[in-house]
Design goal:
Strand order of the largest sheet: 1-2-8-5-10-4-3
Number of helices: 9
Radius of gyration: 20 Å
Shape: globular
CATH architecture of the largest domain: Sandwich
Structural class: alpha+beta
Length: about 325
């Protein structure tokens, strides 16, 4: 796909401003793939670009249910969202965030392997048997949150990505589902296509040359952005007045894979590590009756191991970061 640029581009290459991007904003919108009819096309696009946009993904009834969940839990548990007596500022990193809703809300379990996006996630991580759950959180940038500045960045990465052949499957993958319409007036996710195989944004700018572009991802409620966590991305603020709601879910790759580095053909890729040292999985999921679901929730960090060893004691949970939410 050819992406053209707006004329007001800044191609100075100044490393001091690289984290804020280079102003080469795409003049054409992101391509949307129907996850039910265009699975193979979506997989190829992600493999080539480090991200893909699926739309429509969520059904109208799912959107109603999830937005109702936001409304209900913000009233019932304001502290969990950073509201109420322990009100947080609407910080420019994420706005409001409910970090661990799975701990107390089994009603969300039905979304963990969404039938529209999960088959594509599975293919990108090497097969359904290799997909491991990492984290689920809910986020909202409220009305009139204002504008700020977020640097382009990537999430968790493994350094061998720069050398291994083949690159895919990726190590970690995030799915961002839009629960409200996203336009140039609202906060929007923005990616640098093909940047996942570069160490820095400046390297991507120089290495991609005319292919380097910063692509805001707009789409209707129900759209889903899948991105390799090594892909450089940011959040654009829009007009600072309109709100946005999103559901973020992170996946890791389990199992050992044979791959190759330039110096050897005997290299094996180990499973990717736990994404965080604090995220907890509730007993109903970590000890699920279905062995496939237990495998899905088998990527434990130290906090999870200690909580399991305690017999899922609530006081142990509350002593951990974000465990009292």
């Amino acid at each position: 796909m050819t992406i053209t640029l707006k004329p007001q581009e800044n191609t100075s290459g100044d490393a001091s401003i690289a984290d804020q991007g280079f102003g080469r904003v795409a003049a054409v919108p992101a391509v949307l793939f129907d996850p039910r009819r265009q699975q193979q096309e979506a997989i190829r696009f992600f493999t080539d670009n480090g991200f893909v946009v699926l739309s429509p993904c969520l059904t109208p009834s799912e959107l109603v249910a999830l937005n109702e969940f936001f409304d209900r839990t913000q009233k019932q548990r304001p502290d969990a969202w950073g509201l109420g007596t322990r009100r947080k500022p609407h910080h420019r990193e994420q706005g409001l965030i409910f970090s661990q809703p799975l701990l107390d809300y089994p009603e969300l379990d039905g979304y963990l392997q969404h039938p529209a996006s999960f088959p594509i996630v599975s293919a990108l991580l090497g097969g359904a048997e290799r997909v491991r759950f990492s984290e689920l959180n809910l986020r909202e940038t409220p009305d009139n949150a204002g504008t700020g500045s977020m640097n382009f960045h990537h999430d968790a990465v493994r350094e061998d990505r720069l050398l291994r052949k083949p690159y895919m499957p990726c190590d970690w993958l995030c799915a961002i589902h839009y629960l409200t319409d996203v336009s140039d007036q609202t906060p929007a996710f923005c990616v640098v296509p093909k940047s996942n195989q570069f160490e820095t944004l400046k390297d991507a700018h120089e290495g991609l040359g005319n292919e380097y572009v910063e692509l805001p991802i707009h789409g209707p409620a129900g759209s889903c952005v899948l991105y390799d966590t090594a892909t450089y991305h940011t959040r654009l603020d829009g007009d600072g007045k309109k709100s946005r709601r999103t559901w973020h879910q992170y996946y890791a790759r389990g199992g050992w894979l044979r791959s190759a580095l330039p110096t050897t053909d005997k290299y094996q890729r180990s499973p990717t590590p736990a994404l965080t040292d604090w995220n907890l999985f509730p007993e109903r999921l970590a000890m699920h009756d279905d062995p496939k679901m237990r495998l899905f929730f088998s990527h434990w960090n130290t906090a999870q191991g200690e909580w399991v060893a305690s017999g899922f004691d609530e006081q142990v949970r509350k002593s951990m970061p974000r465990g009292d939410q």
